[in-house]
Please model this.
Amino acid sequence: MGVMYAHLRMAAVGGLAVLGFAVAPGLPLSSDTLSDQQLRAALLDPVDFPEGWASDSERSARQRGFGVPKPTEDSCGQLFDSEEDTTAKAGFARTRSGPFVTTVLASHEDPEEARGEFAQFRAQAQKCRTIHTREGPRGSARPVAYQASGLDVKKLGEESTAVRFERRGEAGAHTGEVVAEVVIARVGAHLVRVAQAGREDGATEDVESIADRAVDKLEQVCDGHMPTPSPNQPGTTDL
Model:
């Protein structure tokens, strides 16, 4: 498994609106908390993806009526997102019909607080074995359910975990055609989530590879460096 790489090709998503990141007001800076600028630098961007991917936006997702699921259950609402005060977010898509990826960085005041949030995610994932959402264009959205299953990924950062959901139809019949996966990892006082949704027919990427790149960028920023491009990025020459 190599680090993901690519050049951006906007034509692949038919002119999707671009949203590189959205940063909420930051906490007072400490030795552990990253600034808004550092969070932006650590966030995934289109060149971290294989050729053909482009930036996506929450507005485009609302217009389409589908993307990475937003559970309707209050107790499961933060599986794919975060309500922390200091966050940076980005979305990506390969086509208008998917697959889709979202990533969220959350900066905490200290590692202990981040460990607590990580533990809360694990507890939430254990309880949310079935999640519900609505999918489809406005006026014709229909309720769907996703059933949780295991997802094995290597250890990322200081601790990590993952969960996979498979979509079920309105009658509860297993379709196996759409999956949603989320990986969360902790690096010091910071958490990074990477979620992917798409058809289970080879169209989706290896979510572990995406998360691996996300953690690598975050670790570089936490070490006081600007993230370096992937050595496998097209056009890069080894000297």
In short: The two ends are 23 Å apart (CA to CA). The beta strands are 22-23, 54-56, 87-93, 100-107, 130-135, 142-149, 159-168, 174-187, 190-199. Residues 91 and 102 are 4 Å apart (CA to CA). The longest strand covers residues 174-187.
